[in-house]
Amino acid sequence: MADLTALPTEVRTKLAELDLELSEGDVTRKGYEKRREKILAPYAIHINTPPPGSPTSPFDRHKRSSVREDSCQSDEHTEAVKAALMAKREFGPLLPRPTKRPVPLPVQKERPSSDVFEDEMSSTPPPNRYSPARITPGLGSPGLSPSAPPYSHASSPHLPGSVNVLADFSVHPREVRSQKDVPSRFHIERPHLIASQEKARAPLTDMSTPSTGMMANNGHISSRIQQLLNTLKRPKNSPSKEFFVDDEDTLETIVQDPNRPLPTGPPSEPELGEPFGVVSNWPSCLEAAVCRWGTQNTKAPCITTFDMNGKVSSTLSYGKLWSRSRKLAFTLLNKLGTKQDPLLKAGQRVALVYSNSEPTTFAVAFYACLFSGLIPVPVEVPRPNADAGSQQIGFLLRSCNVTVALTSELCQKCLLKTPSGETVELKGWPKVFWVTTDSKIVAKPPKDWSPRLPDANNETAYIEYKTSKDGSVLGVEISRLAMLAHCHALSQGCRYTQGETLVNVLDFKRGAGLWHAMLTGIMNMMHIVCIPYAVMKVNSLYWIQKIHSYKATMAIAKSQELRWSVTSFKEQKDLALGTLRMLVVADGACPWSLAACDAFLKTFHSKGLKAEAICPCASSPETLTLSIRRPLSEPGGTHLPTGRTSLSMFELSHGVIQAAVASDGTVQGGQSKQSLLVLQDSGCIMPGVMVCVVKIEGPPKLCRVDEVGELCINSSSTGSSYYGLPSLTKQIFELLPVNAVGAPFCENSFVRSGLLGFMGMGGNVFVVGREDSMLNVIGRRHGAEDIVATAMAVQPSKVLNRGRLVVFSVPLLRDERAVVVTEQTPHASDEDTFQWMTHLIQAVETIHQLNLYSVMLVPADSLPRFPLGVMDVSEVRRRFTEGSLHPSAVLMCPHSSITNLPQARERRSDVGMASMMLGKIVTGKRIAAATGKLLVQSVNEAGKFRFHSEMLQWRAQTTPEHILFTQVGSKGFLGGLTCSQLHKRAEKVAAYLADKERLSTGDHVALLYPSGLELIVAFYGCLYAGCIPVPICAPIPQALSTILPSIKLIVEVSRVVRILTTQALIKMLKSKEALSTLDIKSLPTLIDTDDLPKRKLSHIYKPPTSEMLAYVDFGVSMQGVLTGLNMSHAAAMAMCCAIQTHCDLTPLRHVTLCIGAHTGLGLVLWCLSSVYTGHQTFLISPAELETLPYLWLLTLSQHKTTDTFCSGYVAELCTKNLSTQIGTLKTRGVNLASLRSCIVVSEERPRFGLLQSFTKIFEELGLAASAMGVSFGCQVNVAIGIEAPSATPPTTVYIDIRALRSDRIRLMERGAPHSLPIMQAGQLLPGTQVVIVCPESLAPVGDLELGEVWVQSPCNGTGFEAVIGPNPEARKQFHGRLSVGDTQSWWVRSGYLGFLHHVANAEPHDDLYVVGSIEEALDLRGMRYYPVDIEGTVVRAHKNIVECVVFEWKKLLVVVAEFSGPEAEVLDVVPLATGSVLEEHHLVAGVVVVTDPGTVPINPRGEKQRMLLRDHFLNDSLDPLAINYNM
Which range is least confidently modeled, 428-432, 603-607, 674-678, 752-756? Predict the structure, then answer.
């Protein structure tokens, strides 16, 4: 035999899991061999020895195709569902079907599977469960005319006439020939994501398909979006008119319906079962019974079990049970450890780890523990993959101080081993010593040794585990007295007699299988025939056949086995069930078990099965058996009457019992038949048991007779406590019920059963459900089993995989929300799946009056299950809440299921952000206005210059060798420029433009360069020649199709006559890829500045006035609007002077830049600031950080930089990539202690979380918190405020996010609920004045009031060269006038909302805080939401969401999330994103779109272009991974 210890650990783990599956019957023999061979194939190991167990036989293939798990389906349910769907025919317009990009099915991890078709499917690849349907471009609504006029924008001064806006220029690149080709949005790709994006997806759409703007109501929109809007047009509650009450943004309190049904009956009384009978020869304890039968009836059969072939594998007689358990007891006490220090002592707890196919070895070990005084703790065999269930069991064993585990050789082989042969310690389990009880270590005891046979007392006999609702495992202690009393009660109630045969299908380690088979059956010397679960999966009729062959009088099973038998039954002549006098249905308390019992009786009545033989029972781990239906007392005797009643599920959900069917069969109270629940009784109360029904909530007060409550019992045959949990034990096991007046009616305590029900006529017990499976939604209780049964009746065969379906609730917005999760068959189509989900929602709403929150389908065999096939509901719930179920289809219904959202508000036209202005105050407050320091030009010689060209000439003459610029890249030093070098190279460019190209003064010249020294040289060359430079970002090879049209557009609208660039870029523009997108001949002449001829410039141009145009700054706003800002020489000089004064820059300082160089403040810092101030600037292109993430920080440290400016993208990139490399950076000598200011440049609300993370991560490298700061700018002024160097960190205030939605500012304490941190947007630059103005009334507002930020500054731009995009009001930004107060002064409007906070300290000042853009704010439910807040919530919802964008269209919130995980897991995002937005913002996400990383367009500053993405979405031009329309 080959040595498997040499194999890798993961391979041995798979083999151990496979052996365990075989031992428990989760895989057939043929499937086992194929999978084992497949695992070992890469290692060239061939094992010819047979695997554990018996050889293969034809029995393996017996009726495998008949086995089903739809144990709750019935004809009654099917009819009810059909009626409900007929009633819901007018459900309204159907939603658009969610779509998902087809992907290859993931290779699922080897896991335990209960699929009986394993051997047939192992060699066949599973079919694709996804249809080829996907989002296709150009999918318009049939009702919309394709010729609808496009949206008209304000005309550009250089583009006469109206501009036809196209929705997506960057994604539909084509040659711009006329005005119709102007895009509505402008797009800059993220360079670090383009490569992966191109590989991950195909071209998005046909380039020739035109599309129109989305702002007009008659524009082209997606048919899916229009369909969703039609669906959402339902009557809504009238909006509230109170708009300015901040505290009103609270969830509505769920008010009980005053007309709800209420119980009206008299108070109930406790019910008492029959007394215990007197038995003369009843043994004193269970051990005494084994001793008696083992010595008196040694040959009598005790336990018989079978192998997977259906043959008897072993029969244990009572004599062998006695002798083997006695030997093992002696071994445990005397042969483990040493005599002085034995490993086990009486009273210690021992784990019993046996599979379901080993009842004989388990019985020997269990009774050996009882004989030796040990406390057995039976548990399931742990999975090698350490699933959550196995870990929870390990936690129980750890709390019980278990150090020894008894097991069999077969289970021992399935455990993972180390190369030395030792058992690997299981995750969550304590370190235990494994003892195989069927090995040679069992020693024969001396003749004089006899086990202890104590009388029944209150000592713990064994501990039975149970799984609670939250997935935790509790240990219920059963005393010896309770164990004996329970056996006595079952013997009397079931009328057990010696010599009877009992067929057991259940788990013999816990529950009814343990109580009836291993305890009571052996107590009464019965023959126990155990049918392993593996055999049942192969032949579900096997237990019926054994009842016939053994002439069994007793059997115990669950509704699942009854249903399996019904679906698998075929007419058999040699089958007689007349000997069966009692069939105990262990889950008969389940309300829907009635259907299984009736179907089973109907099928096997012809085989002699009597109606009175079916005996449902009610039980729980705490109370053990509570009630059971009695069998016939004797042949021909009378049978106790059974109860059956029809109840209204509506009244039942309110806890009221009301018979819905009269004696004549008519339905009462106007109830529909499909909303009735038919219940069967669970029999009479057990002997010696007192039962009372107490209220579910509040004090344990007795219920009324027509009220549903929790069943509690007082008996000597119940559990005594939860091990190690005294407080919980007191709540459950020491209950003192009170009567109507609040006084205890009994001195003895009761035990809660966890069963909800009531007492019927004749003392019958009725159970309507289990408390841990109840869904408490909107004040009503719904049974999960009831909803499961309804779901099973909705065409289950087409969609559901073997009936595996789970119903549970999740907390959301202070209430519970119902969720349905089921496995999907591999062959189910998307159409069938969507139809089934919608039908399920309709059926549940009609039958149960319950709106589901989510319906989710997962791939087949992926839901977690317990070893015997029972669904692990708690684990499914946990995976749902953390987003790890990996569904294949999801349907969310938040609109109908969430009913307690805050009431929508109505905006009032007569009230704005500010009230009337009276003099210098606004409603008692000072006007929100602030002014920066006085702007003073330098008094030295440099202060006399008015132009940057003059500054450069003067520096070239006075300090020719002073280094101005040094460029650093991932490969090291890339070049530098001194004052003299920059001057000479600029002269060279200017001479070429003036003499060779004959350009005139004022001609526009495009500068097509990457961020580097060439751009600076060309910029000053244009100034020397009198030309107007227009910097344009250079294209990159990965995104030529998207960037080249943008370049051509800028060239045309800015009237560029020449393009300066490099030789490499010219070569790129002439490549085949570029020519397929753009004809280079359509561009102006390209000039290669790499090797210009030496020419002498005759004279350097000096403008006659500083108000003349210096350069054009083309930038893209977050709204996707492309604007060309005209910057005069005066504004450029004022900007540099203000930055120098504000940041205290001198020629001795070193400044490092890692920001885009072509627009905004980055252009000023790269090209202008160093020449004006004289400081040395180290230049780093942000693209270089893709190759070397720590390049920026390393440069700061090596050159001891004092000031640095970066973009938000750079700070985020360093935070993500370097957070785990601090140790490496320290070894490289990175030290940031010299840094006095680190400014993050942006045109949005300062990203408080990003700056906090950046500071916390790099504080170990010497970064001071006071060094971090931000700058704020906009389209009209690129630097309104910059954080000045200071010894204190930037100021942060916390405001109420609920008040902010109502345009109010209310300060809060840090950490207060609903508090939102807002960081100061830097200090105002010298010479800058701001005022906060109401954008509607144009009146100034007061301090701490929200309004638009208006600016007066010499640094403002002088106007727009061009405006391209959906913003016709853009040009009005330069012509703002107040409606009251100073109505003559001109202001520029920033387009951002903010507020001022006056700080009255030693140096009184006003701090500016920016909240968000007016254009991007979302007007939803009568309130104003800011996308950045919602996007942050979505990103935090799931670990694989890397970026998010939200936008609003026609009051519909759309969430677009970038997903970085496997495509098979993409739908995990949908419920988490929907739930998190609901929880934090009280908004319903109408559509959730999941896309590839890199889909979100950004501008050069790293800011999102939400409006451009909105246009892509509405035009169906995205290529999403998945798109889900929430109902």
Answer: 674-678
DSSP bridge pairs for 766: 758
- Burial group, residue 280, by CB count within 10 angstroms (0-12, 13-18, 19+): exposed
Residue with the two structure tokens 């449902």: 616
Residue 898, CA distances (Å) to 846, 852, 1011, 1430 in order: 17, 9, 51, 19
Residue that wins the pLDDT comparison between 99 and 446: 446
227-241 burial, b at 16+ Cβ within 10 Å, e below that, comes to bbbebbeeeeeeeee
Q: 34 vs 1520, which has greater pLDDT?
A: 1520
pLDDT digits (tens, 9 = 90+) for 1318-1352: 999 999 999 999 999 998 889 999 889 999 999 99
Between 18 and 456, whose confidence is greater?
Answer: 456
Please count the other Cβ atoms lying within 10 Å of the Cβ belonging to residue 958. 12
Q: Rounded to the nearest 10 degrees, how much is the dihedral formed by the CA atoms of 457, 458, 464, 465?
A: -170
pLDDT single digits (tens) 389-409: 788 899 999 999 999 999 999
Confidence (pTM): 0.82
**710, containing H or E segment:** strand 709-714
Which pLDDT tens digit goes with each residue over 1466-1499? Answer: 999 999 999 999 999 999 999 999 999 989 887 7
Spatial separation of the C-alpha atoms in residues 211 and 248, rounded to whole Å: 42
- What is the four-CA torsion angle of 878, 882, 888, 890, rounded to 10 degrees? 90
Which residue is listed with tokens 């890339």? 974
Beta strands in 517-586 (DSSP E): 527-530, 554-557, 582-585
What is the arithmetic mean of pLDDT over 189-193? 42
Tell me the three state secondary structure of residue 618: strand
Q: What is the mean pLDDT of residues 7-30?
A: 69
Residue type, 506: L
Nearest to 812 by CA among 1525, 1481, 1488: 1481
Using DSSP, state whether 991 is helix, strand or coil.
Answer: helix
- 3 state SS of 100: strand
DSSP 322-371: HHHHHHHHHHHHHTSB-SSSBS--TT-EEEEE--TT-HHHHHHHHHHHHH
Q: Where are the alpha helices (DSSP H) in 1204-1317?
A: 1208-1218, 1222-1227, 1248-1258, 1297-1301
Query: What is the per-residue pLDDT across 450-463, written as a single tens digit (0 to 9) for each?
Result: 888 888 889 999 99
| pLDDT for res 646 | 85
- Indicate the residue type of 918: L
| CA dist., res. 136 & res. 202, Å (int) | 12
Please choose, from the candidates 873, 853, 849, 872, the residue with its C-alpha nearest in 3D space to the C-alpha of residue 812. 853
433-436 vs 404-407, strand pairing mode:
parallel
- Give the span between the Cα atoms of 1026 and 993, in whole angstroms: 10
CA neighbours closer than 13 Å in the CB half-sphere of residue 1005: 34
Map tokens 């719930």 to a residue: 877
Q: Read off the pLDDT of residues 800-858 as tens digits, 9 standing for 90 and up.
A: 888 889 999 999 988 999 999 999 998 888 888 998 999 999 999 988 999 999 999 99
First to last CA, the chain: 60
Type of residue found at 143: G
In 468-511, the DSSP E strands lie at: 473-479, 501-504
The 1522-1525 sheet, strands edge to edge: 99-100, 1522-1525, 1485-1491, 1452-1459, 1441-1449
Sign of the C-alpha dihedral, residues 823, 828, 830, 836?
A: negative
Collect all residues with Cβ–Cβ distance below 8 Å to 577 and sequence separation of at least 6: 544, 547, 548, 604, 607, 608, 609
Q: How far apart are CA 1013 and CA 978, in angstroms?
A: 11
Which residue shows structure tokens 């995976």?
A: 879
Give the residue carrying structure tokens 């509405």.
1514
